[in-house]
Specification:
The complex is a heterodimer of chains A (111) and B (114). With 111 residues, chain A is mainly β. Chain A has strands at 4-7, 10-14, 19-25, 32-38, 44-51, 56-59, 62-67, 72-77, 86-93, 99-101, 105-110. Chain B has strands at residues 5-7, 10-13, 19-24, 31-37, 43-50, 53-56, 65-68, 75-79, 88-95, 104-105, 109-113. Chain B has no helices and eleven strands. In chain B, strands 2, 4, 5, 6, 9, 10 and 11 form a seven-stranded mixed beta sheet that branches. The chains are: A mainly beta (111), B mainly beta (114).
Chain lengths: 111, 114
């Protein structure tokens, strides 16, 4: 069964601290893994997509790593800002017709 | 270039009524996916459609739910005889042909069943 788990479900950090969000997946045969941001009442915005052959991807203050052997991905957000407050979802793609999502990490950055 | 559009954004129905959710994909996208997000849960795949065809409906409940993507017009997710357990956010995504992992999501329709 292709399950995606995100822990913790919610976390708060002071502004300026680095954020570390974890995602684990049970089936290591993924094609790629993607991190999304979800704001209340809005849709999902793709942040980073890591192919199975890659170890990490970077975009600005965001860095995502992928370790297929251990079934884990980590999203790092450097120097967090209040505008980073949102829910972050990871989604695995297994070459079928859908993305398999975790429940999300709800983040609050305290000014 | 407008993104994926969904309407209505909020929908309230009483038990037993029908809910019709609409999704207009991004321009040039011919593939549509529907996901459901129950309270405190992650997004769960429901159905994948191309124009006039259902490609994969393995995530959609067999009873009361149906989906279509006609040649002209938006994709429709239809829920007949709604029950309280259908209350959720329903998200639509679209992708360029054949690129399943590159999905662009709409803002969702929040369905509340009273």
């Amino acid at each position: 069964k292709q399950e995606v788990t995100q822990i913790p479900a919610a976390l708060s950090v002071p502004e300026g601290e680095n954020l570390v969000l974890n995602c684990s997946f049970t089936d290591s045969a993924i094609y790629n893994l993607q991190w999304f941001r979800q704001d209340p009442g809005k849709g999902l915005t793709s942040l980073l997509l890591i192919q199975s052959s890659q170890r990490e991807q970077t975009s600005g203050r965001l860095n995502a790593s992928l370790d297929k052997s251990s079934g884990r991905s980590t999203l790092y957000i450097a120097a967090s800002q209040p505008g980073d407050s949102a829910t972050y979802l990871c989604a695995a793609f297994y070459g079928n017709n859908r993305l398999a999502f975790g429940k999300g990490n709800q983040v609050v950055v305290i000014p | 270039n407008a993104g994926v559009m969904q309407n209505p954004r909020h929908l309230v129905r009483r038990r037993g009524q029908e809910a019709r959710l609409r999704c207009s994909p991004m321009k040039g996208h011919s593939h549509v996916y529907w996901y459901r997000q129950l309270p405190e849960e992650g997004l769960k795949f429901m159905v994948y459609l191309q124009k006039e065809n259902i490609i994969d409906e393995s995530g959609m409940p067999k009873e009361r739910f149906s989906a279509e993507f006609p040649k002209e017009g938006p994709s429709i997710l239809r829920i007949q005889q709604v029950v309280r357990g259908d209350s959720a956010a329903y998200f639509c995504a679209s992708s360029p042909s054949g690129i399943v992992e590159t999905q662009y999501f709409g803002p969702g329709t929040r369905l509340l069943v009273l």
